[in-house]
Design brief:
- With 552 residues, the chain is an alpha+beta fold.
- The chain has 3 domains: 203 residues, BirA Bifunctional Protein, domain 2 (2-Layer Sandwich); 116 residues; 100 residues, Rossmann fold, CATH 3.40.50.800.
- The radius of gyration is 33 Å and the shape is extended.
- The two termini are 55 Å apart.
- The chain binds histidyl-adenosine monophosphate.
- The site of histidyl-adenosine monophosphate (HAM) has 25 residues, from strand 6, strand 10, strand 11 and helix 15.
Length: 552
């Protein structure tokens, strides 16, 4: 019998439940409206992409690509995959010496099957696969030879399957080395494409831009997307492994800072619609391929001087990505970072002018901002403008949205020359701050609960429910005949605004009893009059609404 067990959502991912989903839907609809009035149109890109797409665009050395992606092989060779896992699970160097011949047999069969799948094209015919399969062949021969030596040398000890010491230890060590190399060779073999659950969507949008020849479209290509992203980060408040972004990208032939400023303006309009006031816009320029390399070299040099005072992550980044040291959150590194050279002092003239014009464009739109020279962002495709919107309500993970310019990304992905800029906002975090501010009520109220009593009342209840729903009202009709008091209690607990009571008397008289919970007012109304009464706001409800104006 299978064990009974309860299942939970996996670590770092969560269910979003009603009534919160109403606010999520309100937010999505509001964001879509704002994006569309700025002339952005939706693009739906897949949740799965080739891993290589993210490695090339976001950057192989970034945290996202090197540590946080959910990647897996996709192929149609299940038997081969099982045989491969089987070999990976075995280690004959620690088992009884007789297990080596079984290991060698399995390795021989696996090698032959891999070679066949490679030659027929069932497994990708890449140079990497060719090289790894050849390597595996050589290892298989070496294991065979070792098996033979083991059996010859074992005969030196009559009745034993183990050679005399020290030969036995030497052979075991040799076998250990071979098994290690077999694991490595197998790790290099791809039975199919390696794909990744998208950690972000800019790479996909640029891939789609290139794939569909969108550079031929007139004017700027302005696209937006909404959906889940996946990063294997350490879960904490405001940081999830499946989280939701709404993002916008502008691609085209111009990199005018007015585009950057208008994109930011769009975000501020959305913040306004969400009735959020307490936010900060941080902007920076991280230079371009002309001026950044010299700055990075200088930064690396300066970081080397203070290496011993930095934590292991920053020490590693001195080599891999020195810019990322600048946005370290470790308190003990802050005084050191404060003394490092700043990119703003090392921008080339065109980048300096671009950044100055961006600031003028923001001023023109009366958008308040703070220049943050340490805002480098965690993705490699950025150049020039970077920006973030932060909220004090969010704690450590305080970025509501982030973005920047990525001119040249299209070329890097094999596409036509294109300039690009975009942002993504974290929907989970927006919802959190909207809830904290408490100025948006998106809950969908239950307008009417129909209490019917007696078989003759049920058809009247169904007819009334249909009529009210045609008027756009939210209606609940119990499937089974309820008890009046219980039903009224349930209606109140469900938050119903009205109860409509239909008993046999009401069916006969053609007038239903309609009760408004807000002020207890009760009326006898004909079927055709109920909707108007339910739609009219109650005096008491109006008064209580005008009193509640919570603060941000
Ligand atoms: P990002 O800064 O990595 O940029 O993510 C954008 C936003 O997504 C963050 O500001 C945050 O609100 C939210 N976010 C990121 N990771 C998590 C997480 N683990 N849990 C909850 N929310 C999270 C990008 O993704 C770029 N593609 C933005 C972009 C578009 N740049 C140019 N175009």
């Amino acid at each position: 019998m299978t064990e009974k067990r309860k299942f939970h959502a996996v670590r770092g991912v969560r269910d979003i439940l009603p009534p919160d989903t109403s606010l999520w839907n309100w937010f999505e609809a509001t964001a879509r409206d704002v994006l569309e009035i700025f002339n952005f149109r939706e693009i739906r890109v897949p949740v799965l992409e080739e891993t290589e797409l993210f490695a090339r665009s976001v950057g192989a050395e970034t945290d996202i690509v090197s540590k946080e992606m959910y990647s897996f092989e996709t192929h149609d060779l299940p038997d081969l995959a099982i045989a491969r896992s089987d070999i990976l699970l075995r280690d004959p160097s620690v088992e009884h010496p007789s297990s080596i011949s079984d290991y060698q047999d399995r390795l021989r069969v696996l090698y032959a099957a891999l070679q066949h799948s490679f030659l027929t094209g069932a497994a990708p015919r890449t140079p990497q696969n060719q090289h790894a399969i050849n390597h595996l062949g050589a290892l298989e021969r070496a294991v065979k030879e070792l098996t033979l030596r083991l059996s010859v040398e074992s005969r030196l000890v009559p009745g034993s399957q183990v050679p005399p010491e020290p030969n036995a230890s030497r052979l075991r060590n040799e076998l250990k080395g071979l098994v290690h190399d077999v694991h490595y060779a197998l790790s290099q073999i791809r039975l199919g494409d390696v794909i990744t659950l998208r950690p972000e969507a800019t790479a996909s949008v640029v891939r789609a831009y290139i794939e569909h020849g969108m550079q031929m479209l007139p004017g700027l290509v302005k696209l937006y997307y909404a959906g889940p992203m996946f990063r294997r980060e350490r879960p904490q408040k405001g940081r999830y492994r499946q989280f939701y972004q709404i993002g916008a990208e502008v691609l085209g032939q111009t990199d005018h800072p007015a585009i950057d400023a208008e994109l930011i303006e769009m975000l501020t309009v959305l913040l306004e619609r969400c009735k959020l006031e307490n936010w900060t816009l941080l902007v920076n320029s991280i230079g371009d391929t002309n001026c950044r390399p010299a700055y990075v070299a200088l930064l690396r040099e300066e970081l080397q001087k203070v290496k011993d005072q930095l934590g292991p992550d920053s020490q590693r980044r001195i080599e891999t990505n020195p810019l990322r040291v600048l946005d370290s959150k470790l308190p003990e590194e802050q005084p050191i970072i404060a003394k490092l050279p700043m990119i703003s002092d090392h921008l080339c003239e065109p980048c300096r002018e671009h950044f100055a014009e961006l600031r003028r464009q923001l001023d023109l739109r009366s958008i308040p901002y703070k220049v943050e020279p340490r805002l480098v962002r965690g993705l490699d495709y950025y150049m020039r403008t970077t920006f973030e919107i932060t909220s004090p309500h969010l704690g450590a993970q305080n970025a509501l949205a982030g973005g920047g310019r990525y001119d040249g990304l299209s070329e890097m992905l094999g596409g036509p020359p294109a300039k690009g800029i975009g942002f993504a906002l974290g929907q989970d975090r927006f919802i959190e701050v909207i809830q904290t501010a408490g100025r948006i009520d998106a809950t969908r109220a239950l307008d009417a609960f129909i209490v019917w009593m007696g078989a003759a009342a049920y058809p009247a209840a169904v007819r009334l429910a249909r009529r009210l729903r045609q008027e756009g009202l939210c209606v609940e009709v119990p499937a089974e005949e309820p008890k009046l008091r219980k039903a009224l209690g349930l209606a109140e607990r469900l938050g119903a605004r009205f109860a409509v009571i239909i008993g046999e008397n009401e069916v006969q008289s053609g007038e239903f009893t309609v009760k408004r919970f807000a002020d207890g007012e009760q009326r006898k109304l004909a079927e055709a009059e109920v909707a108007a009464f339910v739609k009219a706001p109650a005096q008491a409800a109006r008064e209580s609404e005008s009193k509640s104006e919570p603060a941000d």
